[in-house]
Protein: Enhancer of mRNA-decapping protein 3
Organism: Macrosiphum euphorbiae
Amino acid sequence: MANQYKGCCVSINCVDGSVVQGEVSGMSDDNETLILKRPFKNGIPHTEKEIRLKASMIENLKIIKAQLENEPVINNSQVAKNIKKSVPVPKPNNVKQKNKTKIASNSEPEQPPQNFTNHKERNDACFGVSLDTIVKEDFDFEKNLALFNKKAFYNKIHKKPDLVPHEKVSNKYKHNENVLHSTPVKFRQVTVPSPAINEYITDDGLVVPSITSELRWKLFNLVEENGLTTGRQNEIIGRAATEMVLQLLGGGYRFNPRNEHQWPRVVVLCGPNRSGAMGVNCARQLSSYGVHTVVVLSEPGLYTPQLANEMALYQFTTGTLITSAAELHGLLDPDFVVVSLADEQTDTVSRNITNWAKSVRSPLMAIDPPSQGTPSVVVKYSLVPALPLSYSESNGKIYLCNMGIPTQVFHLTGIQYKSPFGSKSVIPLHNNE
């Protein structure tokens, strides 16, 4: 064994984690101790010219240079176990046969300079295999590609996972809706003791029943007795009406400082009643946005306390007040018309005003109109407070305003109430057919 490995350059991984390299100079008589000369430990020349390594200290052994190029190369794991098995070392291809000379078996190979040997051994230990032992053969791509079953591979990666069968859901969900519902949605969250004829539904599918005018007045009187006065109610619905008018006029595109040359003009038709006071309140708030407002009083000599309070504030705006029906003929088509002429207790309206309202081409919006509509006037939109009445088609599209009435006040009137407004203060209602 000693003569067989003598002269070979080896790299040894020791059990303590260190790496020892050197040239084999011999082995002990019992073949249990390996003797290396010119040793390196962890890439640094050893202080001793010759070291001895016991077999129990060797974890892995690798031959990085054989003694002679035609000498057999021993498998790494077999060397560590002292099993004799030779593997031929390929000869360099760049040596021509006619110029090749035989090397005597008793001669020693020419040793490279020490610095070169050190670097070569270090590179071989780092990169694994000595460049001198690589077989220079072309890689057979066609043969190796045949070993790759492309069809089986693609079937494997494109195979669909086994899913648990489930019931198909045909519903299409919006971006703000949950796909999974923990509990069924209760669409009827408002119930009244004596519902009217019509029933409405919100965009979210919630059912809103209509109420009678008697139940509505009972609700308004009770909430006023508990602090939500008529003036505060007018302010709430007036604000909602203002927001609707601003959006219907074009919103931020229309109300741009660069568009002052075409600032909108809104005419508000007001009667001597609760609805008229809401209309004047809306006109005052529209004026605060710079809208040119014109308030037309159907009966100038008749003022209710609510209407008088609202008119006292409106006089401080830059808006116009018309008290004669004859002045209406001088008004060209405005951008928008708010109708606040009648409520549930009003039967008649000035014919001159209704004739003018029917003649204009502007969109009309009513504030809290009678259930049967404003006499002789058909509007496109209607804004109503709290809970709707059973409205006729002449009231147009119905919008419901949140008046901020406490839930317990609804319960005191016999109404089981849960807000249908969500995050909004005004919502559209549709007939629930």
